[in-house]
Amino acid sequence: MDYDIIFVTGEVFFDHPLCGVAILKRILEKNGYKVGIIDMPRRSDDVKKLGKPKLFFGVSSGSIDSMVRNYTPLKKLRKSDKNLNYNESVPDRAVTVYSNWIKYNFKDSIIVIGGTEATLRRFVHYDYWDNKLRKPILFDSRADILVYGSAEKQILEIAERIKNKKDLKNIFGTCIISKELSKDFIELPSYDDVVNSKEKFCDMQNLFSNDKNLAQKIDNRYVLQYKNPVYTSKDLDDYYELPFTREVPKELRGFQFSVVTHRGCIGECNFCSLSLTQGNRIISRSEKSILKEIKNLTKFKYFKGNVDDLGGPSANMYGMDCTKCRTNSCINCNNLDRTNKRLINLLRKAREIKGIKKICIKSGIRYDLASPEYLMEVVLNHVYDNLKIAPEHVNKDVLRLMNKDKGNLKKFISDFNSLKSGKKLSFYFMTAHPGSGVKEAEELAEAIKNLKNAEAVQVFTPTPMTVSTCMYYTGMDPKTKKKVKIPYTYLEKKVQKRFVLKNINGK
Ligand code: SF4
């Protein structure tokens, strides 16, 4: 078969709304394009197996950066971790490697890169694994255009343009390399600026946004970012209602009957990149569309009445859409509806659907945005035995540097206990974040001992483009430019990890 578009991806492909490439494939097919998939190619020849597409190759490492996937936060190869179901076939820097394989085999083909790895490496970035700054990934990969964040609108526009032999300039939600800079772009500090000055690196960090046209000079050219297109509830309804088969690989069976309620996160955690991938505003699907999808699940052969998960990046942000002032920070906005009413109504209606026995919520919950009514609704009806939350730390300075200092954990625990549900609360924590030394790790270890039920502790990984990674690289809080203590060495991180691990589950 001759394909119009071929996706080369670093993840196993499955026809399910949890697989980003599957959504793109379905949308393109709905619009008349023929789409082929090459998943997890192992060598250069593998990208030849479907021939050359008529329009373009779409390249992605999948939903996770290949370096995060291949290495632990202490930079050990994950394959040395016997507890992980690690698959060696994704190369380091997969987006660049796949793009170069394509260029080698099909010199004149057009390459579109996207997914998390491309999104978070679209400007000059600190690369933890090389311990140095790297140029935007468009330079290494030699791709023609980069799609950042959600890609549905961009990919259709790109396909249309290439089909009609038009150029790829001015497409919302994309980046290109250009020799010129027009005046409607905000200029970030250049590559030379940020290489020579950590203060300039902080200035660059403070300017990152998906909602602006941004430009960065790299030698004698520019990377141009066209601001993100507006995605609406209706768009999401249309995407998630596409006729997926929902066949999933064995390891994802626990999520086969999950339903996505919204995109985006207003949490603003400094170590997280979600605001630069899915955006810092919530876009909720309509209640009608979600209920229709749940009803539809009951028609699947293997469906036993249990919805595996109903949520998004943070389950209880459903309905927290910005409707009024469009300030930069929803979480700090007085107009934010913190009642969770819309979500509670949705849960009640979903439980009534014929053929539904249980609707589980496995997506994380932001405990500081959970109203008492919501907590009761969820604990009594939507968790099996364990509600998981991620306070991440207990030291107030570390929490401030994580931008997670607004919650009242003690009150939440007391509200949870007062429900006398017989269920447990369990906790996720992070150590070795900027601001965390041995003293702070000891404080966390002590808290973990008292809480008794820590689920996991991770060591902070400086992934590209986050505020915390900027702190790690520069040794400064980018907002204040004040010095921050950083655990840089392997030994410091290891010691902090040991401290807290020994107290997990009272061990
Ligand atoms: S709440 Fe979760 S998804 Fe949102 S910014 Fe924080 S860590 Fe990221």
Write up what this structure looks like:
Strand 10 and strand 11 form a beta hairpin. Helices cover 32% and strands 16% of the residues. The longest helix is centred in the C-terminal third of the chain and has 14 residues, at 438-451. With 507 residues, it is α/β, with parallel strands linked by helices. The chain has helices at residues 20-30, 66-70, 94-105, 115-119, 137-141, 152-163, 191-196, 198-207, 233-240, 274-277, 287-297, 341-351, 372-381, 396-402, 409-418, 438-451, 467-474, 490-501, and strands spanning 5-9, 35-39, 56-60, 111-114, 125-127, 132-134, 145-147, 174-178, 186-187, 214-218, 221-225, 258-260, 262-263, 283-284, 306-307, 309-311, 358-359, 386-392, 424-431, 454-459. It has 18 helices and 20 strands. Helix 1 (20-30) packs across helix 6 and helix 8 (198-207) runs antiparallel to helix 17 (467-474). The strands form 6 sheets. It has a 9-stranded mixed beta sheet with strand order 2-1-3-4-7-8-11-10-9, sandwiched between helices. The chain is globular, with a radius of gyration of 23 Å. Bound molecules: iron/sulfur cluster.
Class by helix and strand content? alpha/beta
- How many alpha or pi helices? 18
Shape: globular
Average pLDDT rating: 94
Low-confidence blocks of residues:
none
Report the portion of residues in β strands: 15-25%
Give the helix level as a range of percent. 25-40%
How many angstroms separate the termini? 58 Å
Strand count, sense and closure of the main sheet? Answer: 9 strands, mixed
The total beta strand count reads 20
Bound heterogens, unique: iron/sulfur cluster
Strand line-up of the largest beta sheet: 2-1-3-4-7-8-11-10-9
Radius of gyration: 23 Å
